[in-house]
Predict the 3D structure of the following.
Amino acid sequence: MKESIVLFGPPGAGKGTQAELISELTGKPQVSTGDMLRKAVSDKSQLGIEAKKYMDSGLLVPDNIIIDLIKNRLEEKDSVSGVLFDGFPRTIHQAEELDKITEVKVVISLIVPDEEIVERIVGRRMDPKTGDIYHISFNPPPEEISHRLIQRKDDTEETVMQRLTSYHEQTKPLGEWYEKQEKLVPIKGNETIEEVGKAISAAISKFR
Ligand code: AMP
């Protein structure tokens, strides 16, 4: 059976930033439901049109849409030995469905206090050319690319409050669910990118 890794945490915890490192370490492709949904929105597919309503207001997209997306993604060739999930699962129901198609080996949980989340998200910028993520104060981009950086539509202060509420109500209980299964590895997410990366590498090496 496929063996997968889950990167878990609140919005803005640094999951996308750290996913690249974990992919390099493990050879598992990053599967980000947020990125897949944003692609569907920009393609204006039926799924994208449906998902956009939820994303723009900071709500979770319904489980059935997400589960179909993941089932199709896991049939692709590059995922034969498992993948790295970033931003999925986000509900216990999603996790139960996931258990039917892959074995979750370890869940890396990035811990960042709520009071830091808003600042982290509102200052976040993305390079549309490379997908690299920056922060205007904590991880400033090189000057020559700063003109082309974009801000995600849902990275505003108003939307972030709803995203945090969705996280606490629907996603956080999933952390406890994985903790009971002894799969959860908590890692302090409010250190430098390098320090968080080192802690993740150490955690992952134990599971290989
Ligand atoms: P992210 O890029 O992971 O922050 O996701 C952006 C938005 O996409 C979220 O606020 C949700 O609306 C939606 N989304 C992403 N992943 C999921 C998921 N696993 N379940 C439900 N909604 C999701």
